[in-house]
Amino acid sequence: MTKKSHKRFAYPWGIIVILFMYPAWGIIASIAFFIAMVMGSTAPDYLEFGRIKHRTFTHLPWLWVFCYALGVSVTSHFDMSLIASCIVAGICLGAISHWVGDLGTPMGVPILSTKKRYSLNMWKTGHISEIKPIIMAWLAVIALAGFKVLHPDL
Q1: What total of structural domains would you count in the chain?
Q2: Any stretches that span the bilayer, and where are they (predicted)?
Q3: Residue 92 near residue 67, CB atoms below 8 Å
Q4: What number of other Cβ atoms are within 10 A of residue 36's Cβ?
Q5: What is the pTM of this model?
Q6: Which of 39, 86, 119, 140 is the most core-located residue (most Cβ within 10 A)?
């Protein structure tokens, strides 16, 4: 996916999380999460610094899950603010959305090791077909928003 498509794919992911977490987080932390999520959606590419082979180490999903767990644990342990935790969570979830977006491309992404890539081969980078995952994500937002309306206590 292109940088622009990764960001467009991250918007609905962020909205889905905020839909359920806003009551607990409030407006400031939710906005911080959303901005961090959109920024994190391009993190696996810009962290390559032109020195790491594309779609290798920075595209390992378990690395971002580990960063999330470590970051949220550290911010909680040291009584850092909710906003700091939301920023860490947003960046990491944005990176995971990046991985999901790249999983659908022919080049694919690594899962456990950088030695082998996996691909669903559903859309091509830079092609109009990149709209598919974005539309699917927005449909998920609509479905979950409807669910939230029917079950406001969740």
Answers
A1: 1
A2: 12-39, 59-75, 82-100, 131-150
A3: yes
A4: 22
A5: 0.89
A6: 86
Assigned token pair, 114:
């950088």
Helix H segments across 41-81? 43-46, 61-77
Extract long-range pairs of 116-124: CB within 8 Å, 24+ residues apart: 117/55, 123/1
Q: What distances in angstroms separate CA 47 from CA 2, 42, 53, one per listed residue?
A: 15, 9, 11
- Over residues 98-111, the pLDDT tens digits come to 999 999 999 999 99
Neighbours of 144 (CB within 10 A): 15
The Cα–Cα gap between 52 and 49 comes to: 7
The string of DSSP letters for 85-135 reads HHHHHHHHHHHHHHHHHHHTSTT-EESS-TT-EE------TTSGGGHHHHH
Amino acid at 144: L
Tell me which residue range forms the domain holding 29.
Answer: 3-150
Look at residue 21 and give its three-state secondary structure. Answer: helix
What confidence tens digit (pLDDT) does each residue in 9-58 have? 999 999 999 988 988 999 999 999 999 999 999 999 999 998 999 999 99
Backbone angles phi, psi at 117, to 5 degrees: -110, 150
